Amino acid sequence: MIGKVLLTTYHSAKGREFDTVILPGLLNGIIPRNVPERGRWRPATAKELAEQQRTFYVALTRAERTLHLIYGPGYHTRSGYWRSDGPSDFLIEMYQRLPSTGSSEQQT
Questions:
Q1: Name one GO molecular function term (predicted).
Q2: Which stretches of the chain are DSSP H helices?
Q3: Cα–Cα distances in angstroms (integers) from residue 86 to residues 14, 25, 82, 101, in the given order
Q4: Which helix (H) or strand (E) holds 66?
Q5: Tell me, what CATH number does 23's domain have?
Q6: Percent above pLDDT 90 for the chain
Q7: How far is 87 from 72, CA to CA, in rounded Å?
Q8: So what's the pLDDT on residue 77?
Q9: Distance between CA 48 and CA 53 in Å, rounded?
Q10: Is 107 within a domain?
Q11: Beta pairing, strands 40-42 & 75-76
Q12: Is residue 105 part of a domain?
């Protein structure tokens, strides 16, 4: 799809591949998302969290060449409240699993 942008959900991207994938909103409360229950929001259960993590993995693996992960200090809710729950735990876990490649490591 040269010259086009496709906006899709994580679920509908399953089985497809794209040259570049951009994943915005990688903030706790959004990815992984809190779950609405009786008019309130609650953290996901372990089972819900595992499913969200699987779906996030599907989204990550749709990129053939380039992956852009977008996060920030927080977000405004639909009601206008500022939430600063930090970057997504999924994103932090990915970063922690990356091999160290800093100048502090020296080869002998």
A1: DNA binding
A2: 46-60, 89-97
A3: 27, 11, 12, 24
A4: strand 63-69
A5: 3.30.160.800
A6: 68
A7: 7
A8: 86
A9: 9
A10: no
A11: unpaired
A12: no
Q: Which string of DSSP letters, residue by residue, matches 10-33?
A: TGGGTT--EEEEEE---BTBBTTB
Reduced to 3 states, what is the DSSP secondary structure of residue 92? helix
For residues 77 and 83, is the Cβ–Cβ distance under 8 A? yes
Indicate the number of domains in the chain: 1
- Closest of 39, 57, 62, 45 to residue 97, by C-alpha: 57
pTM score over 0.85:
no
At 46, phi and psi to the nearest 5? -60, -40
Half-sphere exposure of 14 (CA within 13 A, CB side): 8
The one-letter amino acid at 10: Y
Domain range enclosing 33: 11-97
